Amino acid sequence: VQLQAFGGGLVQAGGFLRLSCAGSGLALSMYGMAWFRQAPGKEREFVARMNWAGFHDEYVDSVKGRFTISRATSEPTLYLEMTSLKPEDTAVYYCASGPYAEIVVPGGVRYWGRGTLVTVSS
Fold first, then answer.
1. CA 60, CA 10: separation in Å to the nearest integer?
2. How far apart are the C-alpha atoms of 98 and 25, rounded to whole Å?
């Protein structure tokens, strides 16, 4: 199983970024997918999740209405569209996979992708 996140960068507050996560070797019908983030000096936190069928998306309160998790229909790729970015969104973002019911905490993740850094300037 391999996951690789892309799309991070430097953006001004109020801006937009779209992160992508390419997956391979996954039993797609079995696992949910999620995004986590880890800001400097803080613990890794849950951001969003969905099941691989594309339903039941869920978000941490701090990103509701600003972030959207989605997936490609024809290939194993997960996205996170981030709008109205704030400096407090600055973090390394990780895609992750595991049982849908469990991937709201880092301990429930079975597979981690390499992170991508998002920096939001004020």
1. 22
2. 13
**Cα separations (Å) of 1 from 9, 25, 99, 114?**
25, 4, 14, 12
Tokens of 93: 């973002």
Distance CA 33, CA 35 (A): 7
Neighbours of 22 (CB within 10 A): 16
What is the C-alpha separation between 102 and 52, in angstroms, rounded?
14
Residue 82 has pLDDT above 90, yes or no: yes
CA nearest neighbour of 112 among 91, 96, 92: 96
Residue 93 confidence (pLDDT) above 80: yes
